[in-house]
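Record type: ASSEMBLY
Status: queued
Input:
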Amino acid sequence: MPEASQQIPVTVLTGYLGSGKTTLLNRILSENHGRRYAVIVNEFGEIGIDNDLIVESDEEIYEMNNGCVCCTVRGDLIRTVEGLMRRPGRFDAILVETTGLADPAPVAQTFFMDDDVRAKTRLDAVIALVDAKHLPLRLKDSKEAEDQIAFADVIVLNKTDLVTPDELAKVEGLVRAINPTARIHRTSRSAVDLAEVLDRGAFDLSRALESDPHFLDADDDHHHHDHHHHDHGASDIHDVSVKSVSLRAGEMDPKKFFPWIEKITQTEGPNILRLKGIIALKGDPDRYVVQGVHMIIEGDHQRPWKDGETHESRLVFIGRDLDRERLKRTFEACQAA
Amino acid sequence: MPTVAPLDLDGHCVAAAFVSDVPVFAFADGLVHRLDHGHKSSTAHDGLVCATVSLDGASLLSGGEDGKVVSTSADGTVALIAENPRKWVTSVAAGPQGAVAWGVGRAAHVRLGDGKKKSFEHPRTVEGVAFAPKGMRIGVARYNGATLHFPATDGKPTELQWDGAHTAITFSPDGNFVVTAMQENALHGWKLADGKHMRMSGYPAKVKSMSWSPKGRWLASSGAPAAIVWPFQAKDGPMGKAPVELGTRGNSMVTAVACHPKDDIVAIGFADGMILAGRIADQKEVVLRRQGKGAITSMGWDEAGIRLAFGAESGDCGVIDISA
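Status: finished
Output:
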């Protein structure tokens, strides 16, 4: 395995048209934050900065010839990243801007499925910009807006100055209903603190857990004050087809858990947008973290369980048409005797 | 014993070759270095992406991140062939009578020897271009297959379909076969006479380098811990036949191959910088260079087949003389 230190971090910036992506991009390119970014854009468009490290690349989705419909990568990114990495030292990180209608999955999967890209880069975070004013409308007419939220590690809820506090709470509730694990930043005019969105290691679950110990505590009481999707009726979120399933159980039998997660991701892969979890394996002194995108799943030992820490397994699925009861029943059946 | 004259440079060598018998090394930073009574260099691009030698052997053709296609001659003179502002030129090919083809985004462009230009738009990105050995014909590697065009006439293109992403393309020297490298660690071939498919799979890594033996009897390829050499003597190419594995090593992958211009011998470059020469007939091999700093990215023989120029992603280049 390549060493993490040699791998260039990649941030993926998604967001529907009008969400403020270009404003954020221009800030990242012009502000003095001590890092140099190579930026891969679909169109130079409104980027007001001339810089040789801005590369225009035509979005090119490749289905892999392995019989898996959700195994897609961005062919143009493979080539562009490979080209950029031939001249390292000019930049510290790569930023990929996607089109407003882009599905983030192929972008993320490129960094797992292509060996050359994977050897030289690592996915740092998928950021979704969300227009607080227009989100309810967007969710009515596009599946993409929902996918981008579902997929994100960091969500920038932008244009909050254009909505009332009530509207904002409602929109944030919608976002939380789609994605209970992402970090949400409220802002206007894309004025989010760049340190909060860049080089976060948010895609790297181990790092995300270190910086936010409550990362997967979506169902814990302390979060309930800012998302009310349990109490509100379906009317609030009737335009949302993505849902999350949070599971919680005791120590797992590795002989049962691994075949189960393999099987679930194989059969339910197309419906699973993201999957994240911390697993307590029976007889294992380390916490085991898993994460996935569609059918791709990765797992690793994170750190030893601390004294007094409850050996508990938590797993969150974000996706469509997920059978909560079946997931819960089969997950719990993997518990060690 | 072969002798190695090293040339240690900084950066990533994209192409190592001979231009008018002078060893040249094209680097990703845009410099083209040459060993002509000492080390010299000229700036071809602001960021060089791809390079190949012209068919007359008198210039190096290259495409850049600066959108330019240029030729660099053995004395270091750089001449502009075309400019595609703000786009990367991702592939370049040399054709008969001074023709040049290159890929930019979804377009393949051709400049014929008489200066006439022609462009072919595709629905998907042009991943690779190559000229057929005879007639003015180019092949374009693209998503789900390859397209063959006749740039000198307005003939209808030939579409060769095969699902998946095709990232590079080459014609056999007799013009009977087209072979593409694919995203999923395989080669795909078509027999042009009848469109018959040839699947060449089983590689543990992507194939980045392909080279035909002088009479086109063999196609050598990278992407495995040995050079994988497919037999193309039969009328249906390698179908139903096993490839020859040359220079098998347990601990390093082959990253570049270059067939000798006269004999059925393959120069084999590895991920750790080692270079072997392997003879296809008896699979005998000799070490041409011990390990280096990084993976070999490109190798090219001189016309006589006595000297081999090589370059690595870590910048350590050189010339190996096998006559000694």
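Annotation: The two ends of chain B are 6 Å apart (CA to CA).
Annotation: The first strand of chain B starts at residue 3 and ends at 8.
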